[in-house]
Amino acid sequence: MTDAFRPASLALATVGLSLGTFMQVLDISIANVSLPAIAGNLAASRDQSTWIITSFTVCQAITLPMTGFLSRWFGEVKTFVWAVLLFSLFSLACGLSTSLGMLVTFRALQGAVCGPMYPITQSLMVSIYPREKRAMALAIIAMITVVAPIVGPVAGGWITDSYSWRWIFFINIPIGLFAASLVLAQMGGRLEALIKDRIDWVGVSTLILGVGSLQILLDQGNDLDWFDSGVIRVLAAVAAVSLTVFVIWEWTDEKPLVNLRLFRHRNFAAGTFALVLAFGLFFSVSLLLPLWLQNTLGYTALWSGFAVAPIGFIPILLTFWVGKYASRFDLRILTALSFGVMSYVCFRFGSFNTEVDFANIALTEFIMGLGVALFFMPILTILLSDLEGAEIAEGSGSATFLRTVGASFAVSVTTYLWTRGASASHSQLTEFITSSSPLVRQGVEAAGGSWPHYAAQMNQVITQQAMQISFNQIFDGLGFCFIALIAVVWLAKPPFVKRGSSSR
């Protein structure tokens, strides 16, 4: 029985699983700050270089819902080990790439093989810990989810500046080999009941078409001016039809690729809904902050990484406390407190201006860490609380898939709103710049009597202020969304942690 299996060393098994997941989550963010260097080295434009990110996320989103199917066919341990080894191999290929097309291809393969890694890690961690310590296992995974995106931008900027962008991929190789070796040594003897289901080709094809089209639409929507573009309209139509067919087919098929019937469980449905919405809001914050710091306040990539890094301090300190004691509280209260803290942080960011100093930004991110520490573990425990056995890997994969797509959608929407809001504010602010204004005449005189020179200076100031105004408006909106989200988690019903059993 897989439920009764315990590795020879629980600590080593945990380290192996955690390192594999850390490597995968880290890779999502570490490449972002290196895009300009990669584009320059491979003679690509900035727009072309974004496919390095898009190809990864599209393929990851496609394979995420296939986690349950792969686990049944090959077993969770074997799927995890092979995913880590292939990820390391494709990382080597990425680092050796000599053209953009070659790099994009191997990034796509990276994304495809890493899709199941995170949900299988959750399932394996839950299986090797006694039921009463399940919260601790989920807390460790939650810490990885938070820390890796913090380390990514700082590490990516430092490696690119000090060495070469190629090393952001090469560093995965020793980590991956070590993680795979640990997991195989500690869990290779785990017996698993393999089920060779028929391949759901309708599910596979509609999933690839639907998710692929939706992800490309979300990633490229801003650049192509959304539905004014024929390409976006075609992608939207393909995504809508494919995903509709996918949902209907998977819900009615006897052996579906993705088990949508898991949503019959109340806690899984409510927890996943809360996770998708909250993570979308949180990911929007995580994306906008570095852009604001670099584009509006003039921070370098490295220093913007330092500014957001304090968000990881509290989660690291509280991870084991939350994992050990959270089950003594109503997890809905902890999650609601988390949303309250995140709302406060958003309102705090929404009150800043262009003169804000580094200390205030870092302090605000430090406070956000409290919200993060109280979010991931409780919400993961809630959504997995009424799942058993093989349902855990399937449910984790489905929730992670929806979280990924939700985050992409939220990022696209908030980026668009920031750009549009900045443009609208710019137009409003320029209405006050007229040649008849005494202040304008004084400014022209100070600029040596050159109106074009003065106009260029003023446009730069107005652009900065317009971006700041739009940033403040968006963060105020995010704050109100977090408050509204508190009600969602109360749709779940306890108990969330079953006592008196040492098995899953």
Characterise this structure.
This protein is mainly alpha-helical and 504 residues long. It has three domains: 1-196, Growth Hormone, Chain: A, CATH 1.20.1250; 198-254; 263-504, Up-down Bundle (Growth Hormone, Chain: A). It is 75% helix and 0% strand. It contains 22 helices and no strands. The chain has helices at 10-30, 35-41, 46-49, 51-63, 67-74, 76-95, 100-114, 117-128, 134-162, 167-170, 172-187, 201-220, 230-252, 266-295, 301-308, 313-325, 331-350, 358-373, 376-384, 391-430, 438-446, 451-489. Helix 14 packs parallel to helix 20 (391-430). The longest helix is centred in the C-terminal third of the chain and has 40 residues, at 391-430. It is globular, with a radius of gyration of 24 Å. The protein starts with 9 loop residues before the first helix and ends in a 15-residue tail after the last helix. The model is unreliable at 499-504 (pLDDT under 50).
Distance between the termini: 11 Å
Oligomer state of the chains in this structure: single chain
Biggest sheet character: none
CATH topology category name of the largest domain: Growth Hormone, Chain: A
Shape category: globular
The overall strand count is 0
Instruction: Give the C-alpha Rg.
Output: 24 Å
Name the helix and strand elements from N-terminus to C-terminus, one letter apiece. HHHHHHHHHHHHHHHHHHHHHH
